[in-house]
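Researcher: I'm comparing several assemblies side by side, and this is the next one on my list. It has 570 residues spread over two chains. Same procedure as the others: predict the full complex and return the structure.
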Amino acid sequence: VPTVDLPLTTSAEPLLAATTTEVRDPHRNGGFDPQPGVARLTHAEQARTLVHGHGGAMLSTVARKPEGFPFGSLVTYLADDQGNPWLLISAMAEHTANALADQRASVLVAATPPADTDPLASGRVTLIGTLHQTDPTNDLRAEFLTRHPGARSYVDFPDFMWWTLRVESVRYVGGFGRMSWVDAGEYATSLPDPIAPAAHGICAHMNADHADAHPVLLNFFLRRTDIVSAHMTGVDRLGCDLDAKTATASYPLRLPFRNPANDATDVRNELVAMLNQARLSETQT
Amino acid sequence: VPTVDLPLTTSAEPLLAATTTEVRDPHRNGGFDPQPGVARLTHAEQARTLVHGHGGAMLSTVARKPEGFPFGSLVTYLADDQGNPWLLISAMAEHTANALADQRASVLVAATPPADTDPLASGRVTLIGTLHQTDPTNDLRAEFLTRHPGARSYVDFPDFMWWTLRVESVRYVGGFGRMSWVDAGEYATSLPDPIAPAAHGICAHMNADHADAHPVLLNFFLRRTDIVSAHMTGVDRLGCDLDAKTATASYPLRLPFRNPANDATDVRNELVAMLNQARLSETQT
């Protein structure tokens, strides 16, 4: 379980992030951020989270044919502890021949967008660096074959080779207007969000069984009175993202936790405690 | 509706493809093709079908930063009648700045793999060419916004620009070992498979309600006696793909139609007629 370095607090105040690389979105709210300083994962953490989610990935190499053109191809990969992707690729594939002639490459990892949403609204990260043909540790090899069981049928073919991309630059795009270059050192030392594997289930459960809690939480902790309903779209160790509705408008809001969560149980306990606090306050006013 | 140029036949013989670019898979059956000459879409047709399915797409450009590295990014696109993809991208995005400095690019389109399957077993195509900033026809613009409704919210922002990739080279990969360079002229003039939009539903229906027909069809039309069951994995205008089982083994088989299909109704009628033929033969022997 990754450690959490943010100071814990037991106050009613939601967390303020110590650092955030969030940039303003000129396409939304005229560039105005309605929740400045609210606790969010850094872009380095979001990039590591995406990469460790092992979604679909594209390798870009420098083509031999037609020479010098950027060549995109489909790959599977496993990220190591520093977020460097490892690939198991065949000498018969174009990208391998390209890499043998020119090491420069990038790996694009894109989140699987929710059904019927604009894929460009979901996160993706481009890892740029140089490809090196080298064998992984036994542990990494075993983990790769667990993650990609189809690879067991060809891992021992003589034309298959292990490569790793040594990441030198990281471009993160969280959606429209939320993008930045992430420092490669910060990328290497950041941790994937521990809530990510449970996030989809938490959102589905909250929306199905506890949607009535969403406006109560948002109105109390964001000091509003106008939210009438909300749909949870994401959750991480620092808070939840919701699509909120007033009587006349609809927009995304962030509900930061009071304390960072280390796992799904922490999220549950924090949401229950926050809801009790909000409802207690309601009955006292 | 695309036209079908293959000669129609009313004989009991399944179609033999006039041309096919299928290559042997050295990783499967020792490179031995158990069904040589069986009617399949050409790789050009498969590439056009994939591109017109508008799955997830990744653009590769030549990076300004770090200079000269191949840079992968997520895009949505619409293909025109020649299979050239059109993009609506922001001047603020890295790929646009890259394209303004160097036109060389590729667009990778990958089929959405069936759940719990190796994504590398599904088809993908890399379209390589040069990017040109130019406005689409009104029809193409309208079709783009229908296909990508999220784009309506930013199509009129001043930083968004239309680009098209003029395809010069095409690399098709149908799965392990099924790959080739497709002639760019053949790509431009080939037609997307007309069955593709209905294929998933046809397979689901056949597997749920008519799986008992699969071994009857395979044994009769492929002149076998050993198939005990089969699961339909794909269908196109020239035939069906099935994962077939004998008492001791399991492998993919192709069931070519006697006549090419133009739509889902043709597929239904052809399968019913073929099944009647096979069952009539059973009762006569």
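Model: For your comparison table: Residues 264-284 of chain A form the longest helix (21 residues).
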